[in-house]
Each structure stands twice: as structure tokens, then as C-alpha cells.
Write a structure and sequence with these properties.
about 30% strand, 9-stranded antiparallel beta sheet, about 190 residues
Length: about 190
């Protein structure tokens, strides 16, 4: 199965009316402020965020679907237990830790501010609280895929090097803002500033 199909499967069961950071003013998206713009990227200051995260064992379609199902099942259990976990918040993040030997992948769903944090009752799902962070962002269109993510991460790293910026060279996240059924897609690559 192609990388494009694998990544789009990540968002197959997610439906949202929210369509992205610069065009998503609701509290169902991370709240960030653009502090610098460049032709190839922008620097954003993002406030603290909470996420539910699970590992993706590999880029095989079955492992990607398993990770997505794990988060869906976890969310359903927590909603039944009385926790307020919106199912229409964005973005969905696929975080990649580059390694020539053993790259690592994870899938994260955003928890909006004010949402009652669920219990950490599943050993395969982690609750992550991320502090305020500065991220470099490159936006791109088209259907999201791991292949497009890798290419855009490479282009963002090259642009950051040309601009003399310091950044995390080993990790990046692909952010998807629309459901699979959307006619247009706004995707982003995020790399933390150093």
C-alpha cells in the first residue's frame, strides 16, 4: 500500500468542521501566534497543549489503522466514563523520529484547552502535556502522506539551514487538519526551534 494511502487512512474516521491553524479560530485547534514569516516557512509560538498519543509500530497500513483504532477506542471508553473528549479537534499529528536504523512513529490527537483530561488507563495510549514551544512550520496542500511529509520536512530543514536557524534535526511532525473526505487539504510540517 502506498505511503499516501497509509497517511490518509489516519484521518479516515475523523470528521471535522475545523480546517486549520490560520483558518481555525476555534478552541478546538492549538492556539499559536505567528512571530516570524519567511518565504518558505513561518515561526509560531504555541501555548501549552495536551494530546493523546500512541505509537505506530511501522508504516504498514495495518499498523497505522491499528494506531488510529486504538485512539478511537480509548476516546470512546473515556467519553462513556464521563470525560469530555471532542472528536472534532485538530490537528492529527504523525510524529517521526528520524533514524537510519529504526525510525519511530507516533499518532496524536489534540485535546482542546478546558477538556477534562481522561484517565491514563491504557498502557498503549499516553497523555502528553507539551509546554509552550516555538515551531517552524511549512504548509503544503494535496492529500497528506508519509512520503509528502518526508519531502516537505526535508525542504523545511533546507530552508531553515539557509536562513541560519537552529532546530531539532531529528524529529518532525506532520499535521493534518481535514478529514479524508475533504476536497482540499491543508497540511503542515512542524519542527521545533532549538
Amino acid at each position: 500500500m502506498t505511503a499516501q494511502v497509509m497517511f490518509t487512512l489516519l484521518t479516515l474516521f475523523l470528521v471535522s468542521f475545523c480546517t486549520g491553524q490560520d483558518f481555525c479560530l476555534s478552541k478546538k485547534c492549538p492556539q499559536c501566534t505567528v512571530v516570524e514569516t519567511h518565504p518558505e516557512f513561518e515561526l509560531r509560538l504555541c501555548g501549552p497543549t495536551d494530546w493523546i498519543t500512541t505509537k505506530i509500530a511501522s508504516t504498514s497500513s495495518s499498523d497505522v489503522l491499528a494506531a488510529n483504532s486504538r485512539l478511537k477506542d480509548y476516546t470512546k471508553r473515556q467519553i462513556k466514563a464521563g470525560y469530555d473528549i471532542p472528536t472534532d479537534s485538530w490537528p492529527v499529528l504523525v510524529t517521526v523520529t528520524d533514524s537510519e536504523v529504526d525510525p519511530k512513529y507516533s499518532l496524536s490527537w489534540f485535546l482542546p484547552p478546558g477538556a477534562k483530561k481522561p484517565e491514563n488507563s491504557d498502557p498503549l495510549v499516553q497523555l502528553e502535556s507539551k509546554p509552550e514551544v516555538r515551531i517552524y512550520v511549512r504548509a503544503f496542500g494535496g492529500f497528506p502522506s508519509l512520503e509528502n511529509g518526508r519531502e516537505n520536512a526535508k525542504q523545511l530543514r533546507e530552508a531553515l539551514n539557509m536562513a541560519g536557524k537552529t532546530f531539532d534535526p531529528d524529529n518532525y511532525s506532520g499535521a493534518g487538519y481535514e478529514s479524508y473526505f475533504s476536497l482540499t487539504h491543508h497540511n503542515e510540517i512542524w519542527i521545533n526551534a532549538a
